[in-house]
Amino acid sequence: VAKAQGKNRFQFFSEAIDGKVRQDLRLESALRQALENNGTGLWVAYQPKLCAKTRAVVGVEALTRWRMPDGQVVSPGEFIPVAERTGLISALGDCMLERVCTDLGVLRGAGFEFPTVAVNVSSHQLLQGEALVEHFCDTIAAHGESVCRFEVELTESALTDARGATVLEAFRVAGFKLSIDDFGTGYSSLGYLKRFDVSTLKIDQGFVRDLPADQEGAAIVIAVIQMAHALGIDVVAEGVETEAQADFLRANGCDVLQGYLLGVPMPVSELAEYLHKHRTLAKRVLAGHPI
Ligand code: C2E
Ligand code: MG
Ligand code: MG
Ligand code: MG
Fold first, then answer.
1. How far apart are the first and last CA of the chain?
2. Which domain of life is it from (predicted)?
């Protein structure tokens, strides 16, 4: 009986794995097709980053979104790993940067500018070497944009790899700002903060989630802010969902807030509206009026 059950269990697992493999293959071929088709179904959602003190919009983060031909919306958590495994990530990255540049032009046409636009770059993209940086620079220049408005968000894994390090340095020399994403969740030493000219640390949402009640989380957040500031690095808190979190972060010197409380990732058409509303709000806060 045990043997039969063991066999059933094996069958169950192997079916589950089959299902995952099939789903990944389906995603891979649909993504390949989308990329060959000028990125049909792919678009960029922008999430605002706000000054913790004044709530002025200091920048936005570009986050990729994908609606498959059958209408199903797939999250980056699902398709980015597939893109990384299959090498489609470079084409995806190129496609997104093109969109971001186009969207910036649209926003400027509507009368909006903000200091920085952050794009996520996965450590797999760094395998392209310095050609990646050249390509980024060329795309940005072709759209008449300036590299210094761009920030690349990288996770800690990008910093521990020697090849990645060279590319990071090339990004920095070209004028991009460097931002460490999901700070505190990776395996790495703090030495890289000294080695690279990092402009921003993004505290992972895992440390923000249970603030202010979570004493350990609070201690980590306070320590990270102090360390970053001592090194001349700005701090962004990710995943801010409540006013209590925002109050705690602001009171402890966190520079920038990002999260559903302040703005969800939105298409460029909604971003224009959001920026318009926030321009007025920021003016009110600066003038000492409550929001
Ligand atoms: P990330 O760069 O750390 O982005 C933050 C994620 O948290 C985003 O998920 C965002 O929608 C979500 N988020 C923002 N505010 C809140 C909040 O208040 N609460 C909660 N629970 N979540 C919040 P998303 O858009 O699903 O992206 C997931 C990850 O996929 C990103 O993490 C990033 O690593 C990656 N990614 C997204 N777009 C791209 C891309 O174009 N290229 C690359 N290489 N990676 C990308
Ligand atoms: Mg990010
Ligand atoms: Mg993050
Ligand atoms: Mg993340």
1. 68
2. Bacteria
Tens of pLDDT, residue by residue over 39-60, are: 999 999 999 999 999 999 999 9
Q: Which residues surround ligand 3, an ion (CB under 5 A)?
A: 181-182, 238
Check pocket membership of 266 for ligand 1, CB cut-off 6 A.
no
**pLDDT (average), residues 202-231:** 95
Nearest CA to ligand 1 atom 34: 120
Q: What is the mean pLDDT of residues 172-196?
A: 87
**Ligand 4 centroid from CA 100, angstroms:** 19
- Give the distance, in angstroms, between the CA of residue 253 and the centroid of all CA atoms in the same chain: 22
Spatial distance between the Cα atoms of 237 and 203, rounded to a whole number of angstroms? 5
- Kindly report the protein residue whose alpha carbon is nearest to atom 21 of ligand 1: 239
**For 117-147, what is each residue's pLDDT tens digit?**
999 999 899 989 999 999 999 999 999 999 9
Question: Residue 6 pLDDT more than 70?
Answer: no
Q: Which residue has its alpha carbon closest to ligand 1 atom 4? A: 63
* Ligand 2 centroid from CA 269, angstroms: 21
Q: How far is the CA of 154 from the centre of ligand 3 (A)?
A: 9
- The complex's ipTM works out to 0.97
CB of 259 within 6 A of ligand 1: the answer is yes
User: Quick count: other Cβ atoms within 10 Å of Cβ 225?
Assistant: 21
